[in-house]
Amino acid sequence: MKRLTLFIDADDTLLDFNKAETRAINQTFEDYDLLEYDGIIESYKRNNLKAWKAFERNEMTRDDISTERFRWVFSEFKIEGIDLNEINKLYWSYLAKGADVMEGAREFVEKVKDDNDLYVVTNGTAFIQDSRFALSDMSKYFKKRYISENLNTRKPAKEFFDYIEKDIGFVDRDASYIIGDSLSSDIQLGINANVKTIWFNRENKINEKGIIPNYEVKCFKELEKLIDELRK
């Protein structure tokens, strides 16, 4: 059977970003006495997602995200006098503790790690992702983590994968797959880099983006079965 190279996304594929984000922003806004503003958590999540999508499109820098997401929220609620850099640092400190693992993820990597080469590919802030992987004890399953901040580029840019390919030395495209939950980030990266893709569509979303993956799964059991088939 073939040995595959699997490039797996971190947030909401391996690690539960939604839980980590919800906990971190609640703690941050509680420290700043902001939870009295009805809907402020939902506003933050909406604006944070908006900022990261702009980052994917190369319309914002990571530094922009750190301040602008809070600026947008505070503008919506007419909140003044809060240092955007300071509140972001506090939020980061809480987010770095978010070590929740997605259901089935640990069992999946345990089963496939010996017969395949596993790498993490993620957009994010390096110290936060490093901390979350360390606290979750998930680092040991992967040969390396590729984090956008360290690469000075981002998914889905082809340059992101160019860096990985140069670092590894050779990527056999007949035996390599990018796996992730985001069509615009993970699957588009595969398309841009000519690497086959597996869309982890846990929520059974309708694909309205015109970004077509090679395969689609809804849970790690399905992914494990697919990997076994692809190795034949």
Structural class: alpha/beta
Lateral strand order in the biggest sheet: 3-2-1-4-5-6
First-last Cα distance: 5 Å
Number of helices: 10
Instruction: Compute the number of structural domains.
Output: 2
Radius of gyration: 18 Å
- The share of residues in helices is 40-55%
CATH architecture of the largest domain: 3-Layer(aba) Sandwich
The ordered string of helix (H) and strand (E) elements is EHHHHHEHEHHEHEEH
Residue windows where pLDDT falls under 50 for at least 5 positions: none
Q: What proportion of the residues form beta strands (DSSP E)?
A: 5-15%
How would you describe the overall organization of this protein?
This protein is elongated. By secondary structure, the protein is of the alpha/beta class. It folds into two domains: 4-16 and 100-230, Rossmann fold; 17-95, Putative phosphatase, domain 2 (DNA polymerase, domain 1), CATH 1.10.150. α1 crosses α4 (84-95) and α2 packs antiparallel against α3. The protein has a six-stranded parallel beta sheet with strand order 3-2-1-4-5-6, sandwiched between helices. The mean pLDDT is 97. The protein contains ten helices and six strands. Helix content is 50%, strand content 13%. α6 links the parallel β2 (116-122) and β3. The longest helix has 17 residues, at 40-56.
